[in-house]
Structures are given as structure tokens and as C-alpha cells.
Specification:
The protein is built from five helices and no strands. It is mostly helical and 193 residues long. The termini are far apart. Pfam families: rRNA_processing.
Length: 193
């Protein structure tokens, strides 16, 4: 009777240990996969909402916020620059205007013109830089095409065969001679310089 009781205990221990190990594996998998997922009710509620995933709209919102951030930074820097300029020229910041609405409008329009000028200036600088980059890219592209054409021509000469299938040695010897001249020119030029 005692043996049966012990055997039952051992079998239940094995079952519990296998359950705990499978439970442990399941927990590790859930942790690795990032959680337990959604409940059925939550999933159904999410599906019933009319919020479609629109990458174009997301991109547009990101761009809008990015531009807004740049504008606010630009305004802050302009404000700080004007603040420093006032103290450098000796102007007082406590300016009293009783009924000079026209002056206020002029000041605002002057600020707007200043911002527009700065914008135009930065735009022109950016345009110049872009043109220079495009010119450099075009020059690289032309040099690359020219080198490719030279290599293609040299390859064509090097691959030529006689009617018996032997390589034409004339072009191979010319190629070797050119290489020797280049190396001799480089060695001679560097020693004299």
C-alpha cells in the first residue's frame, strides 16, 4: 500500500514538474514575444473603430511637426539675435507708445521683411550649394563614363584573337609599354620633385 502511495506521489510530482516547465517555457515565450497579446474584446473594439493605417498621413504629420520645430527654433534665434542687437546699439527695451498704431504696424512689417530677406538669403545659399553638388556629381559621372569607355576599348583590344585563336600580341605589348612608361614617369617625377 505504501508503495502505491509513493508511486502516485512520484507521478503527480512528475506531472507538476512537467506542467511547471511547460508553464515556464510559455512564460519565456510570452516575454520574448513582447507580452500576452490582445484580449478578444480589445481586438474587436479596435477592429470596429474606423482608424485606418495611412502611412502617407503619418509622414505628413511628422513633416508638419518637424517644420514647426524648425520654425520655432528659427523664431527663438531671431528673437535672441534682436535682443542682443538692442543691447549692442544701446536702445532701451522700455519703449512707450501711447497711440502710435502705425508705428507698431511698421515695426511688424519691418520684422516680416527682415525674416523674408533672411529666408531668401538662406534659400539662395542652399540653391548655390545644391548647384555645386550637382556640378560635382555631373563631373564625376562624366569622368566615370570616360574611364569606362577607355577600359572598354582596351578590353576590346586585349581580347582580340588571330584567326587561329591566338591572342594578338601587338595590343598586349603596347599595354605593357604604357604601364612601364607610367611607372617610370611616376618614379622619375617623384624623385625630381
Amino acid at each position: 500500500m505504501k508503495n502505491l502511495y509513493r508511486r502516485d506521489e512520484q507521478e503527480t510530482d512528475k506531472r507538476n514538474s512537467s506542467k511547471s516547465s511547460s508553464e515556464m517555457k510559455r512564460r519565456k515565450n510570452m516575454k520574448r514575444l513582447g507580452g500576452g497579446g490582445l484580449s478578444l474584446q480589445t481586438f474587436a473594439n479596435m477592429k470596429s473603430q474606423n482608424s485606418h493605417y495611412n502611412p502617407a498621413l503619418i509622414k505628413k504629420q511628422k513633416e508638419f511637426y518637424k517644420n514647426a520645430k524648425y520654425v520655432s527654433k528659427f523664431k527663438k534665434s531671431m528673437k535672441q539675435q534682436n535682443f542682443h542687437n538692442k543691447y549692442e546699439t544701446g536702445e532701451s527695451s522700455s519703449k512707450v507708445d501711447d497711440d502710435d498704431d502705425d508705428d507698431k504696424q511698421k515695426v511688424k512689417s519691418n520684422k516680416r521683411i527682415g525674416v523674408e530677406e533672411v529666408y531668401k538669403q538662406t534659400r539662395e545659399e542652399m540653391e548655390k550649394a545644391r548647384m555645386e553638388r550637382e556640378a560635382a556629381i555631373q563631373a564625376k559621372k562624366e569622368a566615370k563614363e570616360e574611364a569606362e569607355a577607355r577600359r572598354k576599348l582596351a578590353k576590346g583590344k586585349m581580347m582580340r584573337k588571330t584567326r587561329h585563336g591566338q591572342p594578338v600580341m601587338k595590343y598586349r605589348i603596347e599595354h605593357l609599354l604604357e604601364q612601364i612608361k607610367k611607372s617610370a614617369g611616376n618614379a622619375g617625377g617623384s624623385s625630381t620633385a
